[in-house]
Amino acid sequence: MLTGVFVRDHLGTRLPGCWLLLYGAAVTSGGAFSVRLVPVMGLCFMLLGVSAFVFPESAGSLFMAAGFGGLQIGFGLIIARKYGG
Fold first, then answer.
1. How far is CA 8 from CA 1, 4, 11, in A?
2. What is the secondary structure of the chain as a DSSP string?
3. Cβ-contact 27, 47 below 8 angstroms
4. Which end of the chain is more exposed for a tag (fewer CB within 10 A), N or C?
5. Roughly how many angstroms between the first and final C-alpha of the chain, as a whole number?
6. pTM score of the predicted model
């Protein structure tokens, strides 16, 4: 729903910040029932989302890559190694 609103209002360049914040909030909430690193990962996503709003709009793709590429893979490897998957 928010994606549609952002696009309609010509704020498409702000979507990376919105997506990272929302994903981070979901992971943090869901992580309450998981290993301790999962909510930490969610907080890192939220920090990236806030940063995506602070930095120039042209950096949105870099923040998406850092979050869904770097953070997701990095935390996934740590969790898999430490907790077995």
1. 11, 6, 8
2. -HHHHHHHTT-GGGHHHHHHHHHHHHHHHHGGGS-THHHHHHHHHHHHHHHHHHS-GGGHHHHHIIIIIIIHHHHHHHHHHHH--
3. no
4. N
5. 32
6. 0.92
Q: Read off the tokens for 74.
A: 């990095």
CA–CA separation, 78 and 31 (whole Å): 15
Question: How far is residue 5's CA from residue 11's CA, in Å, rounded to a whole number?
Answer: 8
Report the alpha-carbon distance of residue 63 to residue 19 in Å, rounded.
Answer: 10
19-50 tens-digit pLDDT: 999 999 999 999 999 999 999 999 999 999 99
